[in-house]
């Protein structure tokens, strides 16, 4: 069964950047991935950071629609998606061609940034249903939102409502993601205050700052009001209203109260975090997606001869502490074999390993400079070690060849 991701989100959330990063990251794990560009405003090679295996611009382009039908950018984009729905055979034939070439083809769909497509427009949902039913794909929706929105109460409440609406509209296994988390420290200006209590694990209030001081005028401009875990769990939203009430009109406050009640009644919204250039962040999100979609339980199909062959370097690195292999157990799998995460995990529950909200806050907010310095030193040490191994290997090769060539 082929698997894939549907990457949706608001403009500027980093969808295209994530698609390119995910394709490269999965390739590093030995999993070939294809990006299908369904954004007709993304005109491919001139601006896109990836090479699409299937590109909607070969079927229809936003610029052509704007010129011929005299529509604005948003109207032209909706027309393009409706046109794709009417010509779904183009997409299905392309996906079948990918499967004919690689029956385990993992596909990442890059979706346009118009939020109405994933919240209240019927065409995208119709396209998804046909891809699942006729092409046999098992998809996971990945909804990206810019992490900087959590620094403002009203914007955070809005994005929580938007995430809930997308979950209900798409009807897919769904993961909400706070993207660009590595840039959040620049937004809050390093003003995030750590709790006096060092043990946050038992902190039922999500590590809140003192609301009396947070609710002072101008407090929202100084950084986050709560620890990151509060925003990723998206629970007890009424605490935000205690702060927001001091800076908004009563009508606005009542509206936020009703939205928070609605979101909490459903109890569905939560967030993962993402920094595309951070290997550990990408690894955690990949494991979450694999678990949500069932890939982690199905493994890779195909014959064992199609599995990637380990190099000598990969065999050496597999058991090094902190390596990608040691962390994920990504050994070339047998045909149909489940991964290590499937054997020791369940469909529900947290993903084990680095990457929960506490780890992310420590890395990107509280001690970002120290971590940057530490990782730079570790990267240099790793490069020096790799160079040393190559030098020793070359020297040993010369010695062996010399011994072989020596006269008896």
Automatic annotation (TrEMBL):
Keywords per UniProt: GTP-binding, Hydrolase, Nucleotide-binding
GO-annotated molecular function: GTP binding; GTPase activity
Listed SUPFAM superfamilies:
P-loop containing nucleoside triphosphate hydrolases (SSF52540)
In terms of InterPro entries, this protein maps to: Gpn, Gpn2, P-loop_NTPase
| Region annotation (Disordered) ranges | 192-216
Biased composition annotated in UniProt, kind: Acidic residues: 194-205
- Provide the coiled-coil residue spans: none
Q: Which Pfam families match?
A: ATP_bind_1
GO CC terms, sorted:
cytoplasm
Q: Which family does it belong to?
A: Belongs to the GPN-loop GTPase family.
Question: What does the record give as the function of this protein?
Answer: Small GTPase required for proper localization of RNA polymerase II and III (RNAPII and RNAPIII). May act at an RNAP assembly step prior to nuclear import.
Report quaternary structure and partners.
Binds to RNA polymerase II (RNAPII).
Listed name of the protein = GPN-loop GTPase 2
State the species of origin: Ceraceosorus guamensis
């Amino acid at each position: 069964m082929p698997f894939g991701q549907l990457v949706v989100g608001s403009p500027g959330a980093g969808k295209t950047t994530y698609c390119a990063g995910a394709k490269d990251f999965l390739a590093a794990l030995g999993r070939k991935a294809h990006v299908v560009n369904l954004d007709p405003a993304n005109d491919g090679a001139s601006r896109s950071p990836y090479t699409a295996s299937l590109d909607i611009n070969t079927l229809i382009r936003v610029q052509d629609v704007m010129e011929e039908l005299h529509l604005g950018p948003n109207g032209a984009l909706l027309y393009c998606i409706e046109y794709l729905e009417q010509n779904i055979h183009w997409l299905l034939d392309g996906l079948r061609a990918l499967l004919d070439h690689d029956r385990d083809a993992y596909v990442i769909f890059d979706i346009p940034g118009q939020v109405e497509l994933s919240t209240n427009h019927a065409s995208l949902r119709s396209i998804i249903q046909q891809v699942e039913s006729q092409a046999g794909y098992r998809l996971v929706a990945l909804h990206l939102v810019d992490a900087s929105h959590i620094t403002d109460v009203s914007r955070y409440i809005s994005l929580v409502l938007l995430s809930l609406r997308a979950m209900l509209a798409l009807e897919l296994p769904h993961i909400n993601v706070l993207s660009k988390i590595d840039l959040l420290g620049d937004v809050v200006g390093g003003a995030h205050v750590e709790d006096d209590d060092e043990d946050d694990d038992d902190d039922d209030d999500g590590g809140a700052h003192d609301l009396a001081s947070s609710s002072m005028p101008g407090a929202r401009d100084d950084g986050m009001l709560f620890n990151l875990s509060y925003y990723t769990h998206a629970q007890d939203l009424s605490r935000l209203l205690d702060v927001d009430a001091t800076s908004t009109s009563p009508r606005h406050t009542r509206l936020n109260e009703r939205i928070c009640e609605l979101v909490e009644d459903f109890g569905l919204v939560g967030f993962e975090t993402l920094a595309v250039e951070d290997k550990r962040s990408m690894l955690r999100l990949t494991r979450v997606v694999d678990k949500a979609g069932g890939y982690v339980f199905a493994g890779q199909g195909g014959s064992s001869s199609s599995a990637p062959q380990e190099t000598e370097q990969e065999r050496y690195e597999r058991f090094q502490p902190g390596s990608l292999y040691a962390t994920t157990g990504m050994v070339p799998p047998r045909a149909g074999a489940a991964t290590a995460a499937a054997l020791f995990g369940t469909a529900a529950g947290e993903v084990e390993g680095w990457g929960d909200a506490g780890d992310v806050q420590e890395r990107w907010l509280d001690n970002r400079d120290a971590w940057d310095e530490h990782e730079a030193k570790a990267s240099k040490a790793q490069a020096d070690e790799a160079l040393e191994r190559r030098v020793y290997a070359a020297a040993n090769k010369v010695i062996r060849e010399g011994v072989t060539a020596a006269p008896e």
